[in-house]
Amino acid sequence: MRFGAQYRLQRIQASDMITTDEAATQSGTTRVTMNAWIKSVRCIGVLHLRRGYKLPRWQFEPFIFPVLAPMAAALGSIDGWQLLAFLESPLPALDGQSPRTALEQGTRQFLTCVTVLFGNDWSHP
Fold first, then answer.
1. Structural domain for 94, as ranges
2. Could you tell me the pTM of the whole model?
3. Domain for residue 124, yes or no?
4. Residue 109 within a domain
5. pLDDT tens digits for 30-77?
6. Residue 53 DSSP symbol
7. Among 10, 98, 79, which Cα is nearest to 38's?
8. Phi and psi at residue 22, in whole multiples of 5°?
């Protein structure tokens, strides 16, 4: 089961997952601000099994960070695990690429895909 406890543990321990302190340093803000961003879905945070949140480091890249809040709104989700799964799962509408990969490669086709699937026009920043 992909979202079982074992998967979550492995994902949290992955090398691309950072603490809120590390994310704050990377983004030039504070841990308090980072926690507020997680709560407002400006960034993706998943609850760490011990305490606090872990965040995927790559979300702070300039080609991903600006799309997170509108993407969460279009998906109607505030759950970090759901948003992370969406960004990392291959989509047929993206020729089998994940939205994260599409964004990393510079294609905005991902935005069109979400717009079509969820009926929200946010494909033009």
1. 5-118
2. 0.81
3. no
4. yes
5. 999 999 999 999 999 998 867 789 999 999 998 889 888 888 888 888
6. E
7. 79
8. -65, -40
